[in-house]
Protein: Glutathione S-transferase
Organism: Candidatus Deianiraea vastatrix
Amino acid sequence: MYRLYHYPLCPFSRTTRLVMTEKSLSFTLTSENFWEKREAFIKMNKSGSVPFLIKKASEEEINDGKNHLLLSGINAIVEYLDEKHENNPIYSGTAEDKAEIRRIVDWVNVKFYNEVVSYILNEKVIIFFKNKDIPDTSILHIAVQNLFVHIDYFGYLLSKRGWIASNKISIADLTLAAHISVLDYLGMINWAKMSSGNKETFREWYRIMKSRPSFRSILQDSVAGFAASNSYRDLDF
Amino acid sequence: MYRLYHYPLCPFSRTTRLVMTEKSLSFTLTSENFWEKREAFIKMNKSGSVPFLIKKASEEEINDGKNHLLLSGINAIVEYLDEKHENNPIYSGTAEDKAEIRRIVDWVNVKFYNEVVSYILNEKVIIFFKNKDIPDTSILHIAVQNLFVHIDYFGYLLSKRGWIASNKISIADLTLAAHISVLDYLGMINWAKMSSGNKETFREWYRIMKSRPSFRSILQDSVAGFAASNSYRDLDF
């Protein structure tokens, strides 16, 4: 039995939820506004970040110093879950296949996140909660331009492979879908512009991802102050 | 036979070099000023980032479209090398041990990098090459303050374990030592302040890391425009 501290619009938290659901693990979700640096949270999770995964324990037990599994860091969490729960493997194939899966995961979690998602999350969500400030539209504009370049590359890979890293679904698909779902929630993806070529291939892939049972809980997410976009819960967007 | 495109002051490139040397792999090093976005480099490595690892191929062969292993993304690279070359394993133990190793790796590559190393690299190195500008000392000041907080945590972990993630050397030690070595080269670590408690434990650990044969090549690095600090090549700093 796991407990996952998450934030609904955090793409890394969403990746973790998708992995746990794909593997039929039972877990409790606790929403954590990580930027508030809640004292009891920092005490048990020195990194202060979400997702934070614990196993079979209450906050009290952890702060008593008992030796439970406490995990932060997206790669640490998903690699652990895959090693510990072998059903529906999310890293599979030869060493070269796994290398390609992890290459895409690194691309999405580092490059795509830094060039697109983090700008949008910061301008639209974090700034709002911290200062009740309005977003800087010039930053959002650059992020959306970068988004289209990335989507074209993802569509190119998908057109050659079926799934994003190989001919099987993998952690790379779950990771990318998690990031995309956050942007979609915030209404940052203009799907009407994804109707041809690589971009259409990408849209088709996201339709399939969104229709998976593991996506159901994510599509029910609702964050006060941020209504989901019209396309968000629509499986035929 | 591998070829690694790297940048001498990139901590992720250094991690890769350390792993390859610890595993006695033979490889050729090619230095790449990645921020210049060299056309032939981008053509073969769409991420544009270093480290970039290729196997048995010249740039010409790769641009001819032959199917060689082309890897970017630090986790993709090091996990591949460890899976492919089993000697001197860098992820070992139970699933929980490996989870702790990867937790520290994520901490160093994401949190420590974003709060300390990237500021320093950007202000001291990248800005210099791009604009011949001078560093913003207020940013450097914040980065150094953050550095001390992290070092205290690393020293705390080391005092309990021997190595940073467990009782054996792992990729977590190589990763952290690579990042520290970049800061040390740039003279950003005041070792005189590391003479007691957790900080002394940390300094002792770095002395041991620096004395490993795999560190020799890194200690010989020299980057035009940036002389190594006095402590850098001194094993008894």
Remarks:
- Chain A has two domains: 2-84, 95-219.
- The radius of gyration of chain A is 18 Å.
- Chain A touches chain B at residues 46-47, 49, 69, 71-77, 79-80, 83-84, 95-96, 98-100, 102-103, 105-107, 110-111, 153 (CB under 8 Å).
